[in-house]
Design goal:
By secondary structure, the protein is mostly beta strands. The protein has helices at residues 62-65, 142-152; strands at 8-14, 19-23, 27-32, 46-52, 55-60, 78-83, 93-98, 103-107, 112-115, 126-132, 138-140, 154-156, 165-167. Strands 3-6-7-5-4 form a five-stranded mixed β-sheet. Strands 2-1-8 form a three-stranded antiparallel β-sheet, with no helix packed on it.
């Protein structure tokens, strides 16, 4: 196997106090921050929705999912648009605010090590923390984030008289 095949193009996504590391293929686009349209009664980490390419894009604060304060928007704030891989979101995408532009990096086994340091709630969408040279980014659980979004939008389906619960983002 070649050295290139053992490398993965990834993005370091800056948050207020942390960084996330995600495979480049998970990110559809990084867009300028637009204030999301908020819904009354939503969790503090669910910032609302924005229009993205004619689609309703739910936008979250990853810091909020960790139980931390949602950082205020600044001139550097962006929305990272993630591809929804589980099929739970009809739009196929969701966004997360970032405190700057993600940085493209190539990672391989030599530069990445598992770090046993935790510090996030058990129900947070985090798989683990890794050590990457002098960085300690979190690897997010994007599938869990999708499930959390669907739980927010779960309600009885108007199409189903049995009153089964479905994700309204699928309607």
């Amino acid at each position: 196997m070649t050295a290139e095949a053992d490398e993965l193009y990834s993005l370091l996504v800056p948050l207020a106090e942390e960084r996330l590391i995600v495979p480049r293929a998970c990110v559809a686009e990084v867009v300028r921050f637009t204030a999301p349209q908020q819904e009354a009664g939503a969790h503090n980490w669910m910032l609302g929705t924005v229009n993205w390419n004619g689609r309703t894009l739910p936008v979250v604060s990853f810091e909020g999912t960790l139980g931390k304060d949602v950082p205020p928007a600044t001139g550097r704030t962006r929305i990272v648009v993630f591809t929804a891989s589980t099929g739970q979101l009809k739009t196929g995408f969701f966004g997360a605010i970032t405190q700057g532009f993600p940085q493209l990096v190539r990672v391989n086994r030599d530069v990445l090590q598992l770090d046993s340091t935790e510090g996030w709630p058990k129900d947070a969408p985090v798989l683990c923390r890794v050590k990457m040279i002098n960085e300690f980014p979190l690897i997010p659980d994007l599938e869990r984030m999708e499930a959390m979004l669907c739980l927010l939008y779960t309600s009885p389906s108007p199409r189903d008289r049995s009153r089964d619960l479905v994700c309204r983002l699928l309607l």
